[in-house]
Amino acid sequence: MYRILVADAIKPEGLGPLSEASNILLIQKTVEEAANELDQIDAILVRSATKVTEDLMNRMPQLKIIARAGVGVDNIDIPAATKRGIVVVNAPDGNTISTAEHTFAMMASLMRHIPQAYASLKNGEWKRSSYTGTELRSKTLGIVGFGRIGGEIAKRAKVFGMEVIVFDPFLTADRAKKMSVTSLPLDKLLPKADIITVHTPLTNETRGLINKEKLLTCKKGVYVLNCARGGILDEDDLYEMIVKGHVAGAALDVFVEEPPLGHKLLELDNVIATPHLGASTKEAQLNVAVQVAQEVLTYFEGNPVSSSINLPAISKEVFEKVQPFYQLVQQMGSIASQCMKEGIQEISVTYAGESLDFDTAILTKSLISGFFKSRVDASVNEVNALLIAKERGITVGEKISADSLGYSNLISLKVKGDNRELTISGTYIENYGSRIVNLNGFKIDFHPEENLLYIQHTDKPGVIGNVGKILGDHEVNIATMQVGRKEAGGEAIMVLSFDKPLSDNMKQFLKETEEITFMALISL
User: Maximum distance among all alpha carbons in the chain?
Assistant: First the structure.
């Protein structure tokens, strides 16, 4: 009999999969009310109210799985759970339809001035001519970020007779064709769109993605929506562009700081806003509860779960073998992802060396997870990484080789994109850590640090010195630098690490060096 603590309010129908199981005992109490029973609890289900801290886990020695009935897991100490071997699951796609419908409702309300007209009518006014709206039919909708939610919005826009153009650097040509959308670079999408809606994850690259510079390239009279993450739109720049009349209006469900009480955007008549309601429907709340309840039941039945946030539970012996390579492959996947800003067709990984004498499938899943974490607006993990790859039409292959090129272990990754390929080889050296030893055919040796800059350039005197001078002139301190080349005067690379992330401005300054042929900022 498994004892499951339901610590937050979840409706009985959401717990259906568990309440119907004969080997499950549900305890619907808060953590405080169940204080005397915590040492017997096998699983805990929470929403956002309960904080699952390391201290709480220490009071629950039998705890095997934590389930969050929702997407965000900020209230759960993931590293502590992983260290304890506790699986953490959530419901990453339970609110897809809810958010898509809310975005569309916001779009229609924005274009037809519905909130403003209703407020006017409530005030005893009858100003029909003041609220003349604009039809959605025949308008061009620009979707920035084309994951699950973006795809659902595109389906609805098509029904409304809209033209749909999308920007997603990781969208393959095949998927765009299947969804009947036109894939464009961001600088081509913005001038064409009548309405722009953003649906990307919030990362260092997407923070402030739509700013004053980008908005000035849009049509005068463009409408802008953000029902994804606060911070993707630069709020100060958006305010300025609305006040100046370049942006006709905006619909916002999210803000950088919430609640946004007293926010200057809320003072504008052509801005409508809701208090982060994208996932707030009865159906979405029920869906996420049912999903995590099913996940917990699946786990206790001894089957793999499909929405684990952290490392799935494995035997101690296998875990000890896997652990040295686990972070290495995630870092390799992340480096490849950040260097390949295009649609991906194929990912293949090759394992060689005696120290990799175990089932490497978990490493492949971890690598693919690292590859996708900054590319999709969903929780990615070792369990669902291959499914995400399949959904996006990406072929994943795994090989075992006898040739480790003299290393005790060697992991090699090859990523094939729509226009080019990238290769990375890495190894783990005991007492020395993870090393990247080959990048795009260039022999090199560097530790995958948190903040990296990868530069490919023509091998000419002064290039390295010029890069160092530009960084020095802007008071950027280089922590390490590694270089590699195939032959004198040909192509060469350099990989630099820094104590803190480089600004996008620095990348622009470095691009002025004409010998540089490719550059990528990498954050691990």
Answer: 83
Q: Which two tokens stand for residue 239?
A: 């305010």
For residue 276, with 0-12 CB atoms within 10 Å meaning exposed, 13-18 middle and 19 or more buried, which class applies?
middle
- Position 119, amino acid: A
How many CB atoms are located within 10 Å of the residue 505 CB? 9
Break the chain down into helix, strand, coil percent, rounded to 5: 35, 25, 40
What six digits make up the tokens of 459? 């091998």
| Catalytic residue ranges | 229, 258, 276
Give CB contacts under 8 A, 24+ apart, made by 124-133: none
Say yes or no to pLDDT of 502 above 90. no
Peptide bond before residue 259 is cis, with ω within 30 degrees of 0 = yes
Find out whether 27 and 34 touch, Cβ atoms under 8 Å: yes
Tokens of residue 205, six digits: 């690259």
pLDDT band at residue 415 using 50, 70 and 90 as cut-offs: very high
Please tell me the predicted confidence (pLDDT) of residue 243.
98
| Spatial distance between the Cα atoms of 11 and 160, rounded to a whole number of angstroms | 35
Spatial contact of 164 and 181, defined as CB atoms under 8 Å apart: yes
What is the value of pTM for the model shown?
A: 0.72
CA 407 → CA 282, 367, 399, 513, distances in Å? Answer: 56, 20, 17, 36
Angle at CA 394, nearest 5°, toward 390 and 398? 95
Tens of pLDDT, residue by residue over 174-215, are 889 999 999 999 999 999 999 999 999 888 889 999 999 999
d(CA 471, CA 113): 49
Rounded distance between C-alpha atoms, residue 381 and residue 73, angstroms = 13
43 φψ region: left (φ > 0), alpha (ψ -120 to 50), beta (else): beta
* Mean pLDDT for the chain overall: 91
CA atoms 319, 321, 323, 325: torsion sign:
negative
CA distances from 370 to 22, 215, 375, 395 (A): 38, 32, 10, 16
Asked if 206 contacts 170 with a C-beta cutoff of 8 angstroms, the reply is no
